[in-house]
Amino acid sequence: MKRFIMSISAVFLLLLALPKVGFAVDIDIGDIHIRTGSVPPPIGFTNPPELVPIPGRYVYFVPDTDVDIFFYRGRWYRPYERRWFMSASYNGPWENIRDVPPAVIDLPPDYRSSPPGFNRIPYGEVSNNWERWEQEKYWDRRRVEERQRYEEREKERYPEERYRERY
Question: Is residue 152 a contact partner of residue 163, using CB atoms and an 8 Å limit?
Answer without folding.
Answer: no
